[in-house]
Here is the input.
Amino acid sequence: MSSSQPDIPAPLTNLKFQYTKIFINNEWHDSVSGKKFPVFNPATEEKLCEVEEGDKEDVNKAVAAARQAFQLGSPWRTMDASERGRLLYKLADLVERDRLILATMESMNGGKLFSNAYLMDLGGCLKTLRYCAGWADKIQGRTIPSDGNFFTYTRHEPVGVCGQILPWNFPLLMFLWKIAPALSCGNTVVVKPAEQTPLSALHVATLIKEAGFPPGVVNIVPGYGPTAGAAISSHMDIDKVAFTGSTEVGKLIKEAAGKSNLKRVTLELGGKSPFIVFADADLETALEVTHQALFYHQGQCCVAASRLFVEESIYDEFVRRSVERAKKYVLGNPLTPGVSQGPQIDKEQYEKILDLIESGKKEGAKLECGGGPWGNKGYFIQPTVFSNVSDEMRIAKEEIFGPVQQIMKFKSLDDVIKRANNTTYGLSAGIFTKDLDKAITVSAALQSGTVWVNCYSVVSPQCPFGGFKMSGNGREMGEYGFHEYTEVKTVTVKISQKNS
Amino acid sequence: MVSTSSFPERASFPIFINNEWHESKSGKKFATYNPSTLEKICEVEEGDKPDVDKAVEAAQAAFQRGSPWRRLDALSRGRLLHQLADLVERDRAVLATLETMDSGKPFLHAFFIDLEGCIKTLRYFAGWADKIQGRTIPTDDNVVCFTRHEPVGVCGAITPWNFPLLMLVWKLAPALCCGNTVVVKPAEQTPLTALYLGSLIKEVGFPPGVVNIVPGFGPTAGAAISSHPQISKIAFTGSTEVGKLVKEASSQSNLKRVTLELGGKNPCIVCADADLDLAVECAHQGVFFNQGQCCTAASRVFVEEQVYADFVRRSVEYAKKRPVGDPFDVRTEQGPQIDQKQFNKILDLIDSGKEEGAKLECGGSAMEDRGLFIKPTVFSEVTDTMRIAREEIFGPVQPILKFKSIEEVIKRANSLEYGLTAAVFTKNLDKALKLASALEAGTVWINCYNALYAQAPFGGFKMSGNGRELGEYALTEYTEVKTVTIKLDDKNP
Here is the structure.
C-alpha cells in the first residue's frame, strides 16, 4: 500500500442505485417469488435499496439462458477468440469510464475506504480485465506425437456454464476475477454476488450489455447462500462452480458438487496466514508492511497476516512499535477524506470478531490496545493488538476477519516453520529477511499458495493465486487460472502413415 | 498531420530518432514515387551509416538497465501497444491512402487487409507482453534454478515494399512486446507509412529511443544495420538473395541473431476431388493478389490430370476478368508493379515462358505503353524445368502444371530450395493430412489460401527463411533466455 497517493476525485454525493434486479439474457427480471431483500451501508446501518431476491427458479432461468448461449453454433461459440478478447477490453474501457460510480458504490456498500476502492479495487479490476482479454486468442492446444499411425491433437474447449459465487470483501474485484478468465476461455456464467454487496456487479451488468456480449453469456442472480447459492452448487446443468468465501461454506459447495453432477470445483477460502519477521529484517519496512498485512480493509482479507511471528531478539521493540502504529487510525465513514478505517461488513461479522477478542482476553493473551467496539452507529471495531499469543489460543487458530493483530515470539527457524505450517489453512505467508538463503529456504518450506518476501499482498493478475490445504482448491489468475476454465478434448485421427 | 492531397514540393520526410525528427547527416535526400502515376510523391531524408549509428545509440540508451522502458511493467508495455493499435485504427484511412500512393496496391486492399492485419497484430502482441514467462526448473543438486526471458536488446528491422506497414508491424509488435528497442529501415520504395507510424509511436507515449526509423537504401543503411556491432538481432523480410547477405554480415560482425522471411515458389496442389470452383478462385487470388507481389504467391499450380483442362479454362476466365487500373478506383483489383526493375524482371520471365514452350493462355505483356501495369498472365503446359516454374516471379503470372499421382506431386512440390507455403485442395481427410505432413513448407493451407492470422506462426522451411513471425512462436525470436542458478546451504525439495 503506497503512502503517497495520486490525486483522486471526490466520491459522488448523489449516487443512485438504478440496477437492482436479476440480470438474465441482457435483460432485467423480477424474482419469480416476488421477494426482494435489503442492502445496507455498514458505516451508517442505513438501507441503501432493495434488490430482487433470486432463488432456485431464478437460478434455473439463468442457467437455461447460459446454456442456450453456449450451444454450438451460437454467436458466443462461433465468435473469433480474438473478438472475445476485444469485448473484454471494451468492458475494461467502460469500467474505467464509470470508475467513480463504481468506487463510490464499493465504498458505500462494502464499507471500503474510498481511496482504496478507487485506486486499489478499481485499479485491480482494470488490470484483470485487460490481462484476461489478452489470453483469449492464446489458449492453445497441442499436436502430439502419439504412438501409431495417428494424428493427435488437443482442443482447449470452454468448460460450459459456470456458476460463480462471490464474497463481500472485494465485491467488484472478485466479480471480475471470476468472469474475466471464464469469458476469455469462452464459457458462459451464472453469478451470485454476496447478499451484502450485490450492487457493483449489477452496475457492471449494464456495461457488459453495452460492450456487446451476446445475451445469456453473463447472468447475475442476487440472493442468499442457502437458497440461490445452494441452487447453483447442486444444479445438474452447471458444469463448474467457483466460490470465494469461508472454508465452512466451501466444504458445503464441494459436497453439493459431488452429490449432484460432479461439476468441477474451484475454491478460494479462508486463511490464518503467518508472517515471519527475522531479526535481520529491514525493521522500518517490516513494521509498516506487517501492519498493513493485517489491518488493510479492516482485516477482512483472506490473506490477512493474522499470525505475526517475530524473532525473539527484536520482539519487544516490534510489539511496541506495532501498537503505536495501530493507534494511528481515524475511524469513520469511509467516504470521508481523512478517515483511515471503515466499518466491518455486518452485524454477524462484528459480533464474531468481538467474541474472538474476548476469547483472547480470557485465554491469557496480553491486550496491548483496542479490544472493543467504536462509535454508536455502524459496525466499527477498534484496531486491536494482542501480544504474548500462544499457538493454542482461539485467536491464533481461527480466522478472525477483523482488525485484530496477534504477535507471537519465535526462537529457531525450524521451529517457526513448523508452527507456521501447523494449521489446516495455507493461503499465503510473508517473510522478512535480508538473507538470500533464508528467503529461498523458508519460502520453499511454507505450505502456502503464495509466499511474499519483504512485501505483502502483492497481487497482480499475471500471478496465480490460491490455497494449499483447506484454504482452497485450484488457482485464480495467471496462466494457471485459465486451466480451471478449460476442458481438454483429445482428438485422434487414424491416418495411413505418420511421419515425424 | 498528413493531407491526402498532393504533397508540398519541397517537403521531405525526416528520420525518426528518440521521438524526434532529424535530417540526414549527409544532407542527402531521396525521392519516393507513386508507381501508379510515376510521379514523385515527396523527398525523404536518406539515412546512411552515421544515421544508423545515431539511431542505435538512441536505442541502446533506451535499453539501459534502469531506463523507463526497462523498468516499465510488462502490462504497461502491452497497454502502449494496444493504444498504438487504437491510433492506427483512428488514422486508418490516412495510412491506407499513403500506402496506396507509395506502393500501388489497391486502396480497398490497403484499408481492409493491410490495415486490418496491422491493428489485429498489434492487439495480439499487446496481450502477450505480461504473459512471457520463464520457468523454475527441478535440476539436480542443491540449487534453485530459474530462467528469465529477457529482451534481446537493440533489434534491427529491415522491411520490404510489398506490405510496407504490415511487415513492419509484424516485427515491431513482438519486438516491443518482449521489451526490446528497435531500429527500422523501411524499403526505399515505400518509406512513408513507417514514418507516419513514428508519429503515432510518439503520440502514444513510447519512451524516446524505443523505436527509431531510418529510411535509406539496402547497400548503405541496410548493410549498416546488418553489420552493426551493437545491434543484437536483425529481422529481415525480402529476397532470398539479400537475406543471405544479411545473415553473412551478421556472422561477420557480432553473431547477431537473425530471422529471415524470404522468397517462395509456393505449390498449390489441386486434387481431382477438390471443390473446383473454390480451388480456382483461391489459386487465382493466391497468385494475383497484390499484383503477384507476395512471398506466398501460388506460383506453381499443380492440377491433377483429370481436372486439368477444366481448371485451366476457368482460371483463364478469372484472369481475363481481373480489373487492372488506378489503385484508388474501388473496382480495381490489380494496380501497378512497384518499380521499373521489378516490371522488367517480370516481363523477362514472361518471355522465358514463351521461349521455353509454355502455352500462353492470356495476358503476356504490359498493359499499355507507359506505366508499370502488366496484364494478368496465365501459362499452361508448364514443366518443372522452365524458369517460370523455378524462379520467383513476383508478378501477375500464373503457371499451371499437371500431375498424376500424390507421391509424384509431393516430390515435385518439394524439389526446390524454397519452402514458404503450400496449399492443398481436396475433400479427402487422409489425403489432406498426408499432404500437410509431407510438404516442406512453413505453412500449409488446406482448402484455403493466404489464411494468415496474428495467432498463427509464419515462416519458411529451407531457403525461404529462418525462424517464425506471428503467434506465440515469434516471442522466442525476440527473447534471450538467462538461466539463474543459486546454490543453497540446505535444500527442501
The CA atoms of residues 82 and 474 of chain B lie 18 Å apart. The longest helix of chain B spans residues 107-128. Residues 1-10 of chain B have pLDDT under 50 and may be disordered.
